Amino acid sequence: MRTSTMTSSPIANGAGPAELFELVRNDLAAIEEEFGRETISGVSAITEIGEYLRGGGGKRMRPALLLLSSKLFDYRGRGAVKLGAVVEIIHTATLVHDDIIDEAETRRGRPAANTRWGNSKCVLAGDWLYMQAFKVALEERNFRVLDTLIELTQQMVEGELLQMEKLGKLISLDEHFDLIFRKTACLFSVCMRLGAILGGASREHEEHLARYGRDLGMAFQIVDDVLDLTASENVLGKPVASDLREGKVTMAVIHALERCTGDERRKISTVVEQRAFDGVTHPEILNILTRYGSLDSASARAMQYAESARQAICVFPDSAIKRALLRAPEFVVAREK
């Protein structure tokens, strides 16, 4: 397999997450079972919400990355399954809180949990999930694991608070990248780092894998933001242009704002500040973004991050695990939802 460029895409051959993560299929199934066991509570509402969220599926990319990272070092213990469940529980908790903050009505094509159980119960269920994740992580009796997870949680909470402060405002590209690192790429990076810690990797190798996760996560979120603007509601499983409706400015919009006319800037600003397409339509905004090549620019930046992720793991010898990690960025930039 060629690994120096991204031209040999598995996506062209019909490969998706299942094919990319075939090497960890059994462990992913074990993580799914662990997730189910660890989200059972004596309080029925927590169990019901936890099972509903788990049933919503998702790509399970984050725990898969943790598993692949640990297997680079031939790790064979049970800890990777435990921590894989931990990162997915943390990810799920963030989605619950995000949906409440964003007043989302749908998630992955289904009613968001907060529309079924209400905000109060879902806030507390999200808090419980965070605490449960740390309880499971504690079983590893590894302070580096705990330190890493604590720093992750702080980064993600700070990211959510910073985003709330910037809603309805026209932010800079640096501010946007800081936000998507905290809200998305940080968790990808931590998944790779945790696998390396479990595998007893050197600090140098650990940092290479953490960088891989960070750059992959940045690519993932940039693509997500572009899809939010361009994909259909049926594909996304939520309303299109949700970010703009919530007052969030993403890379393509920032790119256009730096180049557009005063009238076009006022149109974009109106949507962002009012958090609604009131007097300005979604096609109008898309036309502006297309006119200045803003969507293409964002997609190109995602591809740069994806290639940077691939380069970060060139230090490792060839193996089936490395080849799977090299293919993951291709899936991320080529996905349609």
Considering the chains and any ligands shown, give keywords for the structure:
Farnesyl Diphosphate Synthase; two-stranded antiparallel ribbon; disordered N terminus; 337 residues; mainly alpha
What would your notes on this structure say?
44% of the residues are buried. The chain is 71% helix and 1% strand. The protein has a two-stranded antiparallel ribbon. Helix 3 packs across helix 7, helix 4 packs antiparallel against helix 5 and helix 16 runs antiparallel to helix 17. It is mostly helical. The protein contains 17 helices and two strands. The chain is globular. The longest helix has 28 residues. The N terminus is likely disordered. It has a single domain, classed as Orthogonal Bundle (Farnesyl Diphosphate Synthase).
Strand order, largest beta sheet:
1-2
Fraction of residues in helix: over 70%
DSSP strand content: under 5%
Question: What number of domains?
Answer: 1
Radius of gyration: 20 Å
Structural class: mainly alpha
CATH topology, anyone?
Farnesyl Diphosphate Synthase
CATH class: Mainly Alpha
| Helix/strand order, N-terminal first | HHHHHEEHHHHHHHHHHHH
The unreliable regions are 1-15
What is the first-to-last residue Cα distance?
26 Å
* CATH architecture tag: Orthogonal Bundle
What is the overall number of helices? 17
